[in-house]
């Protein structure tokens, strides 16, 4: 070989390597800047006591790229409303990190703050009680009393009683002692450490699946904050897993009730994370109290026979998020009856009311009143139905009957007001806004919220009502906040992005184009949502392809540079798309994708879902742990793996090794099959991650990779696609609705 020709080639290669390394370093810095953007998780307001405005506390979180965790902080502010059109937030100079805090719950008066710290080992659970100036008390509850306190947003329930002396909460039932085996003999619960003995794990027990591995039984406890005494609440059957506990209004005498959500599990516990289709009910249990010498309410020992549990919602298959009205006269709750009845993981919710028997006589309990029924078909831009994933602990305006909720409306999340007496419902965030809004807390009758979009960082908003009741409107002020600050390069890149919501005709749906919906997603009515189960792999795939063709025809996307990214059911769609439209995509990425229903049904925590996906709602009734040959054949036909022979798109897989929802074997089988047929394939396994993969590497990919494809729920075909030149540059973000 001619040395004079070889040298320039080596120099070119060296220059390319240096250029690539420089670009990688630049993108890594950009990634760090993006991941440093904080999220606002919760907020609380407190009366200042001196009449000079309100104090507020914000819980914020920030990704920690190296530790693969999220840091949690508290940031305080003083709110001064100078006049009707002006509000000032005076922020503390620095946030305070809440290291090791699992839950933070202020008391109703705002004079006390509970901080719960769950250990990562078998150490005691810490309960800290803070005043405005110092740590007042600290209690260590050993795990022989109970395990970790639930702070997951679903089973989670931490509730102060009215005089702030007792706190009810949900924690893991203490683990049974493990048997010790020794040379053929068994000593139950023995602590024998002889070298000829070893400890077993005991009998295997069902848990609640994804993100609840090892969690067996959420149970109800009460702690006295004066003495630190902890008691398990008696009378609750072992077949009930409990959550979302609240204290009922104080009755006359010394009997008080706790209201909680109960999930029955006589046999198998099916996965509950993201699954609103698990039947549940509201229950009331009596807690006996007595007055101490200091005239404070104390817990009284009672037998379980003295404290029968009452099912408050026997006539409805789902009831959760209980909230009492300020006057204690009625109890409001959400229901996912549509999900339970159909088998869909998340469907259209309904809101209900029970008149509370203040005398404790539940035999006189009146029927459940429908406040917001399920909306079957959303006409035009009218209210599409209720889709709420949480309710504030105190969602009430001062009239005592109007509550505020966040709910999905079309392709965005909005804030609505609901009069639970009359059923009147209003959208109070701007109708012209495509941003998504989350309700954080109330400041009297004013609202503190956060809004954001795919191209706008979270922004704190302050809402107030202008005019007289029934004749006024809500106005919104932008709040300058250190939380929403980000580097100039990030601002510049985001400001260059375009974001819009487009309505796209879908073939063969309906000639009545006033009916606007995206089939399978939340936010468009129950009829549109329930059209997808039984038609997965066809209806949803065709909707996505129709949307892509539409934006290509509009000139918004280059057909030779379209990529697809999706996770979970979005991963199901991603792998279906590259099989059914093999020439459409230049690259693909799938996070924990469902690729083979026939494989998944025997390994997932939600095998019933495989039947509903394949057969529609009737699959709920035919679910069995032992699928037939016909079932397995149908599962395969509905799966992306049935189209794998046509795939030629280079694909990267991001898989969580601890995923119980779509176990890692699903993605690995598909990736190995692609490699077998010579398709360029890359697999990244996250050894400690579950289905969601909260690792920041994944977040990096969605920011710096091909774009994003996500779904509103497990059965969703919400189209969120970055279509354009790929990577971070010159791409258009389009949210597409089908009509």
Automatic annotation (TrEMBL):
It comes from the Eukaryota. This is Acylamino-acid-releasing enzyme.
């Amino acid at each position: 070989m001619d040395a004079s020709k070889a040298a320039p080639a080596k120099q070119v290669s060296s220059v390319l390597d240096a250029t690539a390394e420089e670009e990688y370093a630049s993108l890594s810095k950009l990634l760090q800047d993006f991941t440093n953007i904080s999220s606002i998780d919760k907020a609380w307001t407190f009366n200042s006591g001196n009449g000079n405005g309100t104090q507020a506390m914000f819980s914020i979180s920030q990704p920690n790229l190296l530790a693969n965790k999220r840091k949690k902080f508290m940031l305080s502010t003083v709110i001064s409303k100078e006049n009707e059109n002006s509000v000032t937030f005076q922020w503390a100079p620095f946030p305070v990190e809440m290291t090791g805090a699992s839950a933070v719950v202020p008391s109703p008066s705002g004079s006390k703050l509970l901080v719960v710290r769950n250990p990562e080992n078998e150490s005691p659970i810490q309960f800290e009680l803070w005043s405005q100036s110092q740590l007042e008390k600290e209690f260590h509850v050993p795990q022989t009393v109970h395990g970790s306190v639930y702070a997951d947003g679903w089973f989670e329930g931490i509730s102060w009683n009215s005089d702030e002396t007792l706190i009810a909460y949900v924690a893991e039932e203490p683990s049974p002692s493990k048997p010790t085996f020794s040379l053929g003999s068994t000593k139950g619960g023995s602590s024998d450490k002889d070298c000829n003995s070893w400890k077993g794990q005991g009998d295997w027990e069902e848990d609640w699946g994804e993100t609840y591995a090892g969690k067996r039984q959420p149970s109800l406890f009460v702690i006295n904050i004066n003495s630190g005494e902890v008691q398990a609440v008696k009378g609750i059957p072992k077949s009930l897993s409990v959550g979302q506990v609240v204290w009922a209004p104080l009755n006359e005498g010394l009997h008080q009730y706790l209201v909680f959500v109960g999930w029955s599990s006589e046999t198998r516990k099916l996965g509950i994370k993201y699954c609103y289709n698990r039947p549940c009910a509201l229950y009331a249990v009596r807690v006996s109290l007595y007055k101490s010498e200091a005239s404070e309410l104390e817990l009284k020992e009672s037998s379980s026979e003295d404290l029968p549990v009452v099912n408050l919602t026997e006539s409805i298959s789902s009831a959760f998020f209980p909230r009492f009205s300020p006057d204690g006269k009625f109890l409001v709750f959400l229901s996912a009856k549509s999900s339970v009845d159909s088998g869909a993981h998340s469907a259209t919710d309904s809101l209900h009311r029970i008149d509370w028997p203040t005398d404790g006589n539940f035999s006189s309990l009146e029927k459940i009143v429908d406040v917001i029924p399920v909306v079957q078909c959303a006409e035009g831009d009218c209210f599409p139905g209720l889709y709420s994933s949480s309710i504030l602990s105190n969602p009430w305006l001062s009239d005592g009957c109007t509550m505020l909720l966040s709910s999905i409306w079309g392709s965005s999340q909005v804030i609505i007001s609901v009069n639970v007496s009359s059923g009147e419902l209003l959208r109070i965030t701007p109708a012209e806004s495509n941003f998504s809004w989350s309700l954080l807390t109330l400041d009297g009758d004013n609202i503190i919220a956060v809004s954001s979009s795919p191209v706008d960082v979270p922004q704190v908003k302050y809402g107030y009502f202008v005019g007289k009741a029934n004749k006024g409107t809500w106005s919104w002020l932008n709040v300058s906040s250190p939380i929403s600050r980000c580097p100039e390069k990030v601002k510049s890149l985001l400001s260059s992005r375009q974001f819009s919501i487009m309505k796209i005709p879908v073939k063969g749906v309906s000639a009545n184009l006033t009916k606007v919906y995206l089939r399978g997603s939340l936010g468009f009515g129950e009829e549109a949502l329930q059209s997808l189960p039984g038609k997965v792999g066809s209806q949803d795939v065709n909707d996505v392809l129709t949307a892509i063709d539409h934006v290509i025809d509009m000139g918004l996307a280059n057909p030779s540079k379209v990529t697809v990214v999706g996770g979970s059911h979005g991963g199901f769609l991603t792998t279906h798309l590259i099989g059914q439209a093999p020439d459409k995509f230049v690259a693909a990425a799938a996070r924990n994708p469902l690729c083979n229903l026939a494989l998944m049904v025997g390994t997932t925590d939600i095998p019933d879902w495989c039947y509903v996906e394949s057969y529609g709602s009737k699959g709920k009734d035919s679910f069995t742990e032992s699928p037939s040959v016909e079932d397995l054949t149908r599962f395969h036909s509905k799966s992306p793996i049935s189209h794998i022979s046509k795939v030629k798109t280079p694909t990267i897989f991001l898989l969580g090794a601890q995923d119980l929802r779509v176990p890692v074997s699903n993605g690995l089988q598909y990736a190995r099959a692609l490699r077998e047929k010579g398709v360029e394939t890359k697999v990244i396994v996250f050894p400690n991650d579950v289905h969601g993969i909260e690792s920041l590497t994944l977040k990096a990919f969605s920011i710096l990779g091909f774009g994003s494809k996500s779904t509103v729920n497990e059965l969703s075909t919400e189209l969120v696609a970055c279509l354009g030149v790929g990577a971070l540059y010159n791409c258009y973000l389009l949210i597409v609705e089908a009509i």
